[in-house]
Write a structure and sequence with these properties.
Helices cover 42% and strands 14% of the residues. The chain is an alpha/beta fold. The protein binds 1,4-dihydronicotinamide adenine dinucleotide (NAI).
Amino acid sequence: MTISFEGRVAIVTGAGGGLGRAYALELARRGAKVVVNDLGAQRDGTGASDAAARVVEEIEAAGGEAIANGASVTQEEQVAAMVAEAKAAFGAVHILINNAGILRDKSFAKLEMADFRAVVDVHLIGSANCTHAVWNGMREQNYGRILMTSSSTGLYGNFGQANYAAAKLGLAGFARTLALEGARNNVKVNTIAPTAATRMTEDIFPPELLARFDPDGVAPAALYLVSEDAPTGVILGAGAGVVQAAHITLTRGVALAEPTPEAVAASYAQIADREGEIVPQSGAEQAMTILQRLQGV
Ligand code: NAI
């Protein structure tokens, strides 16, 4: 079955290049009206350019409909104005892809707190600003699809990216809770952990892999996660056309006869044993499984 975005309005943040551009182009190709947001910053978040306008030109040249928006996702008033502009131009907002991002990589020993805050501000607070600005409208219209952009760094760690990791795993937790809160009103919230050769990663990809890791290899997973029949609360990894699912699991665990640190040490292998682990569907399931262990289940 063809996945169409005909009649849908999508905001894609940070869509002036890289992954966001690929998402915006493909959404428009499949019928969506797109707000291409980007302040056109450098990789570290400084500066500005007309990157968004150039992507709008590409969309229009291909016969699609789009408008450019230069809001910084960190500025609540600019974000509110962006959403108002989207509604004025296209009538509603059905899809939000939170994709804007910056890097300030340094080992934690050398990292200034200003660089920690700047990265959390764009990725985590920026995504919260944009989501907050569309959330009640989506609930009221009983339709919303939101995508958060996490990262393998957030899910699994990466040397030199403590600030980015903190923001990126925060987004995955944010999405899981919004998936629960949005369920009653058909607002679905998912997370993508992309891998693509963009200006953000161009210096870490071996040259021979740059072409293979084109952002177009991530776009199918992103579009699926904001489509009509998308699941909700899932985390997909995607790169070069390979799509994976990431889960946050919980092991069966051990009910300690004597709750002491020594008993934790003695049982650690069994505590960490992944046999019978589950993927809780909400935080409450952890307490339920604790009660089960206490009852010897
Ligand atoms: P990119 O640097 O090409 O795209 C990020 C865009 O966000 C830029 O166009 C930039 O101008 C824009 N931006 C930065 N600050 C902004 C702000 N305050 N308001 C609005 N726009 C802003 O890099 P790429 O790779 O396309 O990154 C897209 C997303 O994917 C980011 O969230 C990134 O962290 C994430 N990601 C990328 C990976 C990769 O392998 N390329 C891996 C994991 C995550």
